[in-house]
Amino acid sequence: MSKIKDINVVHQICLGEAKAMKRVLEKHNIPFFMDGGTLLGAVRHKGFIPWDDDMDFGIMREHYSEAIKYLQAELQYPYKCISVLDSDACLFDSCKIIDVRTHIKQDDTYNKDPLGVFIDIFPYDYSDGRSSFFSNYMLQKTLVRIQNFNFTNVVDRSLLLKFLSKIVKIFFFPLKRTTIPNLMRKLSFKRGDYIIVNCGVYGKKTIMRKEVIGKSFPMKFEDTEFPSVAIPDEYLRNLYGDYMKLPPKDKRRIHLLDIEIDD
Fold first, then answer.
1. Domain boundaries, the chain
2. How many angstroms separate the CA atoms of 170 and 164, rounded?
3. Distance in angstroms (rounded) separating the CA atoms of residues 99 and 16
4. Concatenated DSSP letters for 173-219?
5. CA angle, corner 15, sides to 9 and 18, nearest 5?
6. Predicted confidence (pLDDT) per residue in 218-261, tens digit
């Protein structure tokens, strides 16, 4: 194995994963869209944010399980789809497409499963827009955290998170990996006027009008196109504020520390 030292090589690996995902999902008419930093990169840079080292996509909950099924069955070497149901490398109820030729160490190593350079695919749920203590949002968020603490190892995290993880593992150890994801599907609003993402780091900022996701349209990304959300400006302002302004250099965070690839 040899080390990858050029971020552009990582970008090309991610782009290959995303193109392979696109072929499978479009074959089965499963709608998906760029989200998070990938959508920001498409709008601001016409491709990757120069210091970003993964890609992010979203799929509405009603299509999510089917998408994972097809991706796991049809992706070809060197790509593989892993989910929370079969890997500690996936937090919450999410999935990743990895390049199995690559091997990485993250700056927040919370799992013991091997992980390659990856792209993330997150499930989007319908919501009534509320975020109070007894809201659907808070209920789902709590379930997501239980899943996280129960089935991943929070090494290199704070003492509080390690303590919470141990408590959850004691009280919820009988749970199967499928229990909470199946419950999440039942709790997802079918006709809510808002959408939410219970995975990731943006929290309540992801509560948006369902029209923001709406009907996607193709947007340039590097040498190809991927679907955008219907109203990218509103989406990005919710998450990032003045999203066209570059962050200071000390905020340009790279997730991956060491990346190796099979020779």
1. 2-261
2. 10
3. 9
4. TT--TTHHHHHHHHHSBSS-SEEE--SSS-GGGG-EEHHHHSS-EEE
5. 150
6. 999 999 999 999 999 999 999 999 999 998 888 777 766 688 88
* Predicted local distance difference test score (pLDDT) of residue 106: 58
CB 61 within 8 A of CB 34: no
pLDDT of residue 113: 63
How far apart (Å, rounded) are the C-alpha atoms in residues 84 and 74? Answer: 19
Which pTM was predicted? 0.89
Cα diameter, the chain: 53
Measure the CA–CA gap between 30 and 37, rounded to whole angstroms.
22
Query: In angstroms, rounded to a whole number, what is the distance separating the alpha carbons of residues 87 and 54?
Result: 18
Check: CB of residue 156 under 8 Å from CB of residue 110.
yes
Residues 144-156 have pLDDT tens digits of 888 888 877 655 5
Q: Which of 204, 88, 61 is nearest to 147 (CA)?
A: 88
Q: Is 222 left (phi over 0), alpha (psi -120 to 50) or beta?
A: left
Task: Give the helix ranges, DSSP H, for the chain.
Answer: 7-27, 36-45, 61-74, 136-151, 159-172, 179-187, 210-213, 232-240
Q: By C-alpha distance, which of 199, 214, 98 is closest to 152?
A: 199
Which residues are paired to 217 by β-bridges? 228
Q: Per the structure block, which two tokens stand in for 1?
A: 């194995």
From the list 105, 74, 102, 123, the residue with the least C-alpha distance to 14 is: 102
